[in-house]
Every structure is written in C-alpha cells, then in structure tokens.
C-alpha cells in the first residue's frame, strides 16, 4: 500500500514545484522573473502582429503552420498562467481569459472560424489589462499614464477589429493588400467622421456597419480625450476602503478619510 502511494506523492510534489516555479516567473520581481515577463510580453506583441496580418496571410501556403504554432504559444501561456494562479476559477471568470480562450479556438479551427479571425486582435486589449505590464513601471510618472495608454489601446483595438470585419465581409474577394488598406482607410475616415465618401460600404449591412463604427469610435475618442485632459492622478490603493485613484498630493482618502502615505516619484 505504501509503495502504491509513492507515485501519487511524487506527482503531487512535481505539480507543486511546477506551480511555485511558474508563480515566481509570472508574478515575481527577481531578475529572472523580469526577463521572463519581458520575453512573454515580446512574444505577445509578435502574436498580435501576426493577428493584424492574418487577413493578408490566410491564402499563403505556410499560413496553417504559422497559425498552429501561434496556437501552441497561446495555449502554453494560458495553461501556465492558470497553473501560476492561486485561484484558477477566478482567473477563468475574467474577460481577459475569455478573450484568450476565444482566440485559441480561432487558432485551432482556422478554417471553420475563418470569418471570426479578425477578432483575434482583441488579445491586444487583453494584454493591456494585465497587471504584469504595469508592475515594473512603479507608482510614479509612468503609472500615471496607464489610463491614457489603455484608452489608446482601446481605440487601436477597435480600429483593427473594424478593419478586419470590413475586409472580411466587404473587401475580401481577391483584394489582398489593396483591399485591406481600403478597409483601414474606410474605418479611420468613418471613426473620425471625415466622410470623404470615396469608399462606401454597399447595402443596409454597410450602412449599419458605418453607423456602429461612428458611434463607438466617437465614444472611444472622447474617452481618450478625457484621459489626456483630465488632471493626472496616482494609483495607490487605500488600505481602508481600497480606492485607488487619488490626487498626487492627497493626505487623506476622499472616500473614507483614511490617512494615505503615497510615495513621491523619487522614492
């Protein structure tokens, strides 16, 4: 009986060591962890570049090999982050995890879900919401730009999603790079409400696409303008109530009155 229990204990010990190792790499501050997190972010950016170029690469002979290679990377990253998490269920309930699962499905079934591949760029939004991207920037001037950066990422993500949608459903037939540029040109002109009218989407579907693009695009532009113009605040969680946004010179939390100890940029 004792000999039968040894493999299970060994396997459990291996899994525990693996999770501890991944937790240190994904959430640690040691030089090794910082290098790993930087490399992971670089790989994420490369995969996002691949997603942007997907509409132009889908007809190439090597596309499926690239697609499945990226699928392996995304699956490995998702599995590793799950193992590194102290609460897997909580992690899987987050919208960023839903995006990663959806992206993985489009990579595993590129033919069946070809018309949805333009949504892969949502991983850019998912990446911008990960705390690891901001953890090493400190609580000073760089972190103060977090909201503005996320507003820019939201706008860029929307532009590329709409461009992919327009290209897939309106310009795909034998258009290649020229069609993708036309789709991007239409998207930018519509979002900025320039309305040159030289490229117009046909039919009711085209008009509805333009309406949604204009309304959502204007909202994102307003959000970006607010993030740029609004007086800068620091992100510092109040020990009492958890409120994070405060004035740079705040002494007390405006929500609960608790005394704050916000570090200066030079600290």
TrEMBL record:
Membrane topology summary: Multi-pass membrane protein
Transmembrane segments: 36-57, 64-84, 96-119, 151-171, 208-229
Alphabetical list of Gene3D superfamilies matching this protein: 1.10.287.70
Potassium channel domain ranges (all copies): 157-228
Keyword annotations from UniProtKB, A to Z: Ion channel, Ion transport, Membrane, Transmembrane, Transmembrane helix, Transport
GO BP, sorted A to Z: monoatomic ion transmembrane transport
InterPro entries named among the record's database cross-references: K_chnl_dom (IPR013099), K_chnl_volt-dep_EAG/ELK/ERG (IPR003938), VG_K_chnl (IPR028325)
PANTHER family linked: POTASSIUM VOLTAGE-GATED CHANNEL PROTEIN SHAB, VOLTAGE-GATED POTASSIUM CHANNEL
Protein name listed in UniProt: Potassium channel family protein
Organism: Mesorhizobium retamae
């Amino acid at each position: 009986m004792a000999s039968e229990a040894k493999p299970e204990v060994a396997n459990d010990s291996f899994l525990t060591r693996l999770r501890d190792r991944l937790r240190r790499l994904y959430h640690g501050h040691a030089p090794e962890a910082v290098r790993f997190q930087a490399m992971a972010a670089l790989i994420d950016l490369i995969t996002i570049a691949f997603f942007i170029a997907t509409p132009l690469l889908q007809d190439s002979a090597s596309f499926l090999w690239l697609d499945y290679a990226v699928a392996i990377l995304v699956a490995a990253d998702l599995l590793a982050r799950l193992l590194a998490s102290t609460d897997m269920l909580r992690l899987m309930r987050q919208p960023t995890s839903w995006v990663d699962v959806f992206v993985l499905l489009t990579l595993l079934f590129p033919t069946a879900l070809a018309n949805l591949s333009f949504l892969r760029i949502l991983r850019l939004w998912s990446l911008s919401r990960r705390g690891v991207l901001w953890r090493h920037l400190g609580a000073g001037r760089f972190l103060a730009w977090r909201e503005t950066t996320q507003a820019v990422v939201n706008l860029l993500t929307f532009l590329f999603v709409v461009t992919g949608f327009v290209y897939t459903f309106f310009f795909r037939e034998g258009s290649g790079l020229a069609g993708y540029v036309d789709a991007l040109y239409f998207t930018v002109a519509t979002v900025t409400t320039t309305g040159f009218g030289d490229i117009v989407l046909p039919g009711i579907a085209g008009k509805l696409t333009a309406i949604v693009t204009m309304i959502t695009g204007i909202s994102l532009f307003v959000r970006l303008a607010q993030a740029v113009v609004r007086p800068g605040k620091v992100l510092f969680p109040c020990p009492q109530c958890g409120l994070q946004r405060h004035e740079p010179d705040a002494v007390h939390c405006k929500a609960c009155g608790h005394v704050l100890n916000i570090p200066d940029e030079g600290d």
